[in-house]
Amino acid sequence: EWQAVQNGTGHTVYSGTVDLTTTQSGSSYNLTDGARGGHKTYNLNRGTSGTGTLFSGSDDVWGNGSPSNLESAAADAHYGAALTWDYYKNVHGRSGIRGDGVGAYSRVHYGNNYVNAFWSDSCFCMTYGDGSGNANPLTSIDVAAHEMTHGLTSNTAGLNYSGESGGLNEATSDIFGATVEFYANNSSDVGDYLIGEEIDINGDGTPLRYMDKPSKDGASKDSWYSGIGSIDVHYSSGPANHFFYLLSEGSGTKTINGVTYNSPTSDGLPVTGIGRAKAEKIWFRALTTKFTSTTNYAGARTGTLAATGELYGTDSAEYKAVQDAWAGINVGT
Ligand code: ASN
Ligand code: ZN
Ligand code: CA
What we know:
It comes from Streptomyces marokkonensis. Helices cover 35% and strands 18% of the residues. With 333 residues, the protein is of the alpha+beta class.
């Protein structure tokens, strides 16, 4: 049975009122995105197993903006998945996580007061907790794109989730978490180099991670050092996040969309940014054609330089910026 793509409306927790792509089935509507590989959004209703129940309803309006309405976080998750799909398709020419046009699915309302979200290769799905007090669902755009990108990494480079490759895996999710948020560019979400600034995971309004100076979170590293592979992958990601910021925006102080960044370099030398549009092309090409499961920081330098040479030439300003940005986090000096 052929079913037309429907244009629903989501009243999200974090992104205001957004368009959602849905499906009509008989007299009801459900959160199946027929324009993006059939991506579906399910309700775990605070349980922790199974697929849950596909969100459906008699009208095509989802949530009311409050986390206490269980459709609100569903609207965020459905929207974040759609944006991430559109970003990879329109910016990088990739159709879906596996590049085969097939959607994944999302599960929201996992557990009680569960302060995390995760991707799973085994279900080919993303899962979101509701956060502390079930009041801060982990469904912001950058978190959704972060989790979905774990699926992409798993199906491309396959970076092992431990040691330096694990840090690069985490950084890849933060990098594209940020670039998808910039891509969204709606009035509630103009884009930044902060991760999780909307979900209030620290309870004081601070973000989970900072790409301009990762050590601002109190645990992440700004630069590579011998032995960084033995710390948590969410902290060894810091230097690669910092590399991406430096390559995009350059070192020093800069205000973007109202957020002021101040990015140092480990060698004290300046880096001239080439812009996010080029930096994201370089990281994507390296991830999908150069990195392997065991790529470490030195290998990431080699891989991004190879990708940059192919995209812009080895005599280019872009190539020099990639060299300088790696030097700025103490890789390849
Ligand atoms: N939210 C976390 C992440 O995506 C879950 C985990 O630690 N794997 O990294
Ligand atoms: Zn992650
Ligand atoms: Ca963000």
